[in-house]
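Suppose a colleague, Dr. K., hands you the sequence of a protein chain of 474 amino acids and asks what its three-dimensional shape might be. Before reaching for any lab equipment, you can write down a predicted structure in token form. Begin with the sequence itself:
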Amino acid sequence: MTRYQHLATLLAQRIEQGLYRSGERLPSIRSLSEEHGVSISTVQQAYYLLEEKQLIHSQPRSGYFVASRKAVPPVPALSKPVQRPVEISQWDEVLDLLSGRMETDMLLLGNGSPDLTQPTLKPLWKILSRQAQKQDPRILAYDSIVGCLPLREQVARIAIDSGCQLGPDDIVITNGCHEAISVAIRAVCEPGDIIAVESPSFHGIMQALRGFGIRAIEIPTDAVTGMSIEALELAFDQWPIKAVIVVPNCNNPMGFIMPEARKRALLALVQRFDAAIIEDDVYAELAWEYPRPVSIKSLDVDGRVLLCSSVSKTLAPGLRVGWVAPGRYRDRVIHMKYIVTGSTVTQTQYAVAEFIRQGYYQPHLRRMRQIYQRNYETFSCWVRHYFPCGICVSRPQGGFLMWIELPEAFDAVLLNRELRASGIQVVVGSLFSASGKYRNCLRLNFTFPLDARTEQAVALVGAAVERAIASCAA
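The predicted structure, expressed as tokens, is then:
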């Protein structure tokens, strides 16, 4: 982070904390330069950045002032899903969401894809190009069903940051995290079984359960601390739950990081009932605070946690490189992988392994964390500015996703249909529920360049939300 970005972040925090109030004149450029020991141009750049985020505005010959703003929206309250196992629906809505990817002029404002434009990805392109130039026969051949050894070695290395002590033989490479979760589910469950999930929960998990004939019981989930351990215990007392699926770090869709004490409590509870935990760790490397949060897998002593992850959110989804550390379920996971896909794409496995081995991965992660955190600060200001009062907004601690809860009577499905006519697609909250709840919620992302087009799109969404809420109240 540059000096002017660091100063802008500090001033933004002071504004958020109320040290500088709405309409109040900010310190002069010269006084800030002296206070922080930086140049006048550094202060000017910091003020320009805060102006772009609409936190401040300038008045000729008078200086800079804190912009008038709406109050910071509260975070969503603890969710209250149906407390019984249900069969999952919503497939038609998911299919409609996926179809938006094919429309090249559509702004996918709720998409789960990372920023693919950064220069820190250039070494990956070069590695892929060199592979083709060398005509290495390995990249056209089958590799081991568990994945190529160089990649498994590198995955074991980067897992150390999460607190895990894994070896290459503890890891099975998959076609992205989606396959990792799918084979993990099939390894621990049979059709008709029950799995506990967060509520809201990633729609890909929901549809995997639907496809395997598994029922889901949604557990109340807090937008700050994650799944309610108390509610999960009550569910275990009433139902024969075989496994729990959680996204504890940089959660999709709400962005929270479950505190370590609650991770330990969750693991202890699951051990007591002799169930499994399927841990989706795909966003965890994008936590804004470093070191990244520990995984539940790192606390596991008896192999009941199946850790699933990939480079789909940190590098690029098109690589289709993921993995699962299946613990005691290794043999079953390998069998399920053989049944579904057999080997994983070879070329991208070797490319990702080389990208990590040559030391490009960590600098890329550092850059993306900074970009996404900075984008969030601007994007959340836009949401606060353009959306009506009476909403709740999650406060992610990493990744690039935001969850917005609107008044109960609001219908985000109808909103999405209206927005698509304007070339904008959001993700409707009902996709994240087995029972179709959260129809009044949206998931948005902030990976896009924060330019005039993106701001205009947020403004259009906010105006459409305001009209819809007014219509509900009429």
